[in-house]
Amino acid sequence: MSEFRQTSAWWGRWNAHMSISQIQTDRAALFRALHTAGRPLVLPNIWDVAGARIVEDAGASAIATTSAGVSWGLGAADGDELDRDLALHLIARVVAAVDVPVTADIESGYADHSEGVAETVQGVLAAGAVGVNLEDAHHRGPTPLRPAPEQAERIVAARQAAGSAALFINARIDTYLLSAGDPTARLRETLSRAEVYLAAGADGIFVPGVTDPQIISALVEGVAAPVNVLAGPGAPAVAELAALGVARVSLGSSIAEAAYAVVRSSAQEVLATGTYGTLTRALGYGELNELLR
Q1: Does Lyase count among this protein's keywords (predicted)?
Q2: Which of 77, 150, 175, 182 is most buried, taking the most CB atoms under 10 A from its CB?
């Protein structure tokens, strides 16, 4: 009987593993299919499990983390400062809490070299996510952006690390966000990098910092893959971005920034006047508790 119980337990664990793998495969296929020009995937980025449950409950088709929000919530500055293991642990907790695909913003891969990027991607897949953002900003480098060939090597490493998994690699190009290079050549540089990154194995191109409809339209025309833009106050509405052919709209760190603004304003109000007006739009305790039950 003991041998039978051991065999049954092994079979149960193997079957559970296969079920989880199939779930992840199905979510990866769904996530990829959600990138449709003209019907963009809209991602209100989150940084913790409660936020993920709230966004899923609001009707989101997928969940995306914001590296800035994750870093701030875990006590680090954004810009390749967060410990990789902390980031991966958070991703795993978010994946476990929702029933929709999860894509993770992993900054530059939480690594100095392409080998480290591969290790990070393996960790992301082990956590159950089906997509990553991989940026070409070089926060501690001599220039704002990594040279395109160097970034391409990192994308190749990410793709190889994913193996047969249908990981959606969203290559982020920070030419506009960081105002890098000659302004008159910025669009040409962005399109050139996009071509290099797609050849290296990227599935989509993310260009934050662009709100001009003409530039967005040029990006959609010039990039042979789904185009992702960063939206928020001052950017075109989702319907306008859809009409321009955008396939993915992200809110980035803006929700986290707004949430922390509530922390500051409510603290300032109660400490200065003893009143609580800032908190009148708070979610109810019971509602939040039920979402996490």
Answers
A1: yes
A2: 175
SS3 category, 41: strand
Spell out, as residue ranges, where the chain has pLDDT lower than 70.
1-20
Residues 41 and 85: their CA atoms lie apart, in Å, by 28
Question: Is the distance from CB of 47 to CB of 72 less than 8 angstroms?
Answer: yes
Q: Looking at the domain that runs over 27-253, which CATH code has it been given?
A: 3.20.20.60
Q: Where are the domains of the chain?
A: 27-253
Pick from 27, 37, 22, 62: which is nearest to 204 by CA? 37
Placement of tokens 């400062």 in the chain: 81
Reference 123, options 152, 158, 150, 174; nearest CA is 158
For residue 110 the two structure tokens come to: 């939480």
| Residue for token pair 């897949």 | 125
Alpha helices in the chain (DSSP H): 2-33, 49-57, 67-73, 84-97, 114-127, 148-162, 186-200, 213-222, 238-243, 254-272, 285-291
Q: How many residues does the chain have?
A: 293
> In whole angstroms, what is the distance from residue 213 CA to residue 2 CA?
68
How high is the pLDDT of residue 29?
97
Can you tell me the distance from the alpha carbon of 230 to that of 251, in angstroms, rounded to the nearest whole number? 6
Q: Look up tokens 């040029």; give the residue.
A: 218
For residues 269 and 278, the answer to whether their CB atoms sit within 8 Å is: yes
